[in-house]
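User: quick one, fold this
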Amino acid sequence: MLKSIIGKKIGMTQVFDAKGNLIPVTVVEAGPCVITDVRTSDKNGYNAVQLGFGDALEKKLIKPQSGFFKKNNLSPKKILKEVRVDDSSSFSVGQEIKVDAFKAGDYVDVRALTKGKGFAGVIKRHNFGMQPRTHGQSDRMRARGSSGGQGPQKLFKGMRMSGHLGNEYVTIQKLLVVDVDAEKNLMLIKGSVPAVKTGTLFISNTIKKIPVVKVEKPVGKSKKK
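Assistant:
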């Protein structure tokens, strides 16, 4: 079974477990995804499957994209993502991947594009400390300060400075799946995940060592204020 899926971030809420502990969760609409293409080692040099998620209007597709979906007798998909697998012979074009591939207690890695925040200074971007507010330094309290001495007389690569913040792909590893609703295609993931609301998430089985933890299904949702 393929333990990867594409989803959409709905928002955050909180649920209670059987012991009454409150758990903050992110609600994700995960799938259903359709396999739009299968890569084989004989033909392509590697094994992978291409997943499609979200319906797209055919008039918004370019001709190569439209021809690709027509060739495979598939409805146009908005998002395509390729996932590497060990053996692709068990997969076929048109096969559906649903959220029931996951279950409560699984650990997943979530990759998404973070919220863009524009140009930011070193205090917000790199958590620098502020300079003194007094003794003639009042206009420099949020400045970066000296970037070097007379030694090299240049800036080294990777030096932390002001610049663009956010709008980059980030992967958060080993997040706990609290609950899965196969009927509504919903997945509850403990904690926060990157991306804005309605943003696209790429969810896959975690690559890290999974601890043995018994997860009890939530008994209800808390009331939002």
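User: anything notable?
Assistant: The chain has a mean pLDDT of 85.
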